[in-house]
Amino acid sequence: MEAGDQAEQVGGLPPWDCMARWTQAEREVWLMGPFRGGIPGMVRRIRRILDVSQRGLAALLGVSQSVVARWETGRTSPRMSVVERLLRMAGLRMDFHDEDTGQEVGPMRADGARTHGGSRYPAHTDLTVTGWWVPRRLRSMTSIEAYEWVDRSRRIGDPAIRCRVSPFWKRMQRMVHGTPDDHPAVHQFVAEVQYLDERREDLKQERYGHAA
């Protein structure tokens, strides 16, 4: 065992010595390896690529050696941000793929639309745009103030975004329109509302044109 490393102890003995107490069936299963090492094995792989001891990796990360030892024995796991840092240090890249299709799956976009309070919409919901944003108290009115808010929202590019939390309506919406891959960015919703405005204006022109 490399100096500075800490092997997982089982009954006070190193793992290999513990095989003396294994049954024949357990030995046969073990010899069918190698087995995927999971997160502990990945930490060890990165340490091997970097050619550093547990103490050396701990120094690079600014943690104690015991933390690295616990990662490698599976007693704890590093945070995702730490895993990303480890991969960058080793010159590796992490990809996720759909188990059924093999298609690569990426994280949700960072510039997805947010509420007026600045928080993100729930990740499991689907977002739709209903027009230009108007305060809730004016949404059922046709007052001058309501139209002024529509003009203001159009001018600054502030669309009215809605998310469905009802499982039934979300299922119905997905049956009709499909399942969105992500939450669109605000500028995409702005473009959609502008298109709807143009279509509404075209239909109005067609209707009044025929009437004339």
UniProtKB/TrEMBL annotation:
Where does the HTH cro/C1-type domain lie? 43-97
The record's annotation in InterPro entries points to:
Cro/C1-type_HTH (IPR001387), Lambda_DNA-bd_dom_sf (IPR010982)
GO MF annotation: an example: DNA binding
Which domain of life does the UniProt lineage start with?
A: Bacteria
What name does UniProt use for this protein? XRE family transcriptional regulator
Classification of source organism: Bacteria, Bacillati, Actinomycetota, Actinomycetes, Propionibacteriales
